[in-house]
Design a protein that fits this description.
single chain; mainly alpha; globular
């Protein structure tokens, strides 16, 4: 790796950490960057996931004020998220490339859900209660989302925000903080398996980690100040860009 490549990977990590904290889809920056420098797809995927874990933790810490009172939610959804992340990581090692065709579909559905989220939230308001986070449909859908996250993960945050805003009666900023915690858990359990069983490039990991840690703080500082409609618009905008990149290659 030459200095220019190292700088580019560091910068990609910073951008990905920022975007992941506010929205998600940061892997659509780091993953193609690694491919462009000649890394094999599996090596790039696993090294990217391991490298982004510190950035996810950084973003979660940046949203710590919004996490007050959400301990039970994090614990309940953390079980399905952790199990799904581990499942997805195992599937990647066994069947690399299997999910590529459905990724644009998943992100497209998530964008629609984010866009109509306020209306759906109002429609479901009478069916929600203090323990809505214990809903089995939500747990199952979070498990499925985490499987995808452990497998590849680009756009995972968009899908998670869509589900949270529909099922839980809370502000989007607080739900974004919860999303960051669960994303850190999903990436973390996947990273543990990758470190044990996959071809991790530690020079890449360290560069992405360094950039994403800074990016997590930048994303939290910027994202927490956005009004809810603006945050929703950014989520949809980034998602549309991610969708275009996936469809157009």
């Amino acid at each position: 790796m030459n200095p220019l490549e190292a700088l580019a990977i560091l910068g990609a990590g910073l951008a990905a950490g920022t975007i992941n904290t506010i929205v998600g889809s940061g892997s659509l920056i780091t993953f193609p960057t690694l491919l462009a420098f000649g890394y094999a797809p599996l090596d790039a995927n696993v090294s990217n996931t391991v490298g982004l874990v510190p950035g996810s933790l950084s973003g979660a810490v940046g949203y710590r004020r919004e996490l007050v009172g959400q301990g039970q939610r994090a614990l309940w959804l953390g079980v399905s998220s952790g199990a799904g992340g581990l499942t997805g990581a195992a599937l990647l090692l066994i069947f690399p490339g299997a999910f590529a065709a459905i990724v644009p579909i998943l992100i497209g559905v998530a964008l629609v859900l984010v866009a109509v989220g306020p209306r759906l939230s109002k429609a479901l308001a009478q069916h929600r209660h203090a323990d809505s986070h214990r809903s089995w449909p939500l747990a199952v859908m979070f498990y499925a989302t985490a499987v995808y996250g452990g497998y590849f993960g680009a756009g995972m945050g968009i899908i998670m925000i869509a589900l949270l805003t529909i099922f839980l009666a809370d502000g989007i900023q607080r739900l974004n903080g919860l999303k960051n915690v669960l994303a850190a858990l999903i990436n973390g359990v996947a990273a543990i398996l990758f470190i044990a069983r996959a071809p991790v490039h530690w020079d890449v990991v360290l560069l992405i980690a360094a950039g994403s840690i800074v990016g997590g703080q930048v994303g939290a500082r910027f994202g927490r100040r956005l009004p809810a409609p603006a945050l929703r618009l950014i989520i949809i905008s980034v998602g549309l860009v991610a969708e275009a990149r996936l469809l157009l290659g």
